[in-house]
Write a structure and sequence with these properties.
single chain, alpha+beta, two-stranded antiparallel sheet, 6 strands
């Protein structure tokens, strides 16, 4: 949770830039019917500032699992790498959807480490995605 005040205007700007979707799992706020949180890409506890360039949208569970980390372990290489930065990196460069559209596949060390660290394929979310796929709401087309 942020220790710094984030104005309504800044929250709205960040949400619009993120297209009202979590920067990690790409879940839309309109699907879950719950407000997204503002994530500090570099957490305040690590010196990150509360300014537009360091903020992005995240669902509450992705934000909770990310916590105050900026790096995580890549299960394939054994290296510690930076967690995905949704403001500066393109999601499709690091991730893809499984054939069924219900799981996120990490394509790079950053992607793989983020999938594990942020728990992007947590059981409840994968199950929800299956329903969203049937409804035609998922995966995102862009």
């Amino acid at each position: 949770m942020s220790r710094s005040y984030i104005s309504k205007a800044l929250r709205e700007q960040v949400a619009a830039e993120a297209r009202h979707r979590c920067g990690f799992c790409l879940t839309s706020s309109s699907i879950i019917g719950s407000p997204m949180e503002i994530d500090h890409i570099i957490p305040e506890s690590l010196g990150g500032l509360t300014e537009r360039e360091n903020l992005w949208l995240a669902c509450s569970l992705c934000n909770e699992h990310k916590g105050n980390r900026i790096a995580a372990f890549d299960p394939h290489t054994g290296e510690t790498v930076r967690i995905f930065d949704p403001r500066r990196q393109a999601w499709p460069d690091h991730f893809s959807w499984s054939a069924a559209g219900d799981q996120i596949i990490g394509k790079t060390p950053t992607g793989r480490a983020t999938v594990v660290a942020v728990r992007l394929n947590r059981a409840e979310l994968v199950e929800a995605r299956r329903g969203w796929v049937i409804a035609g709401w998922h995966p995102p087309k862009d």
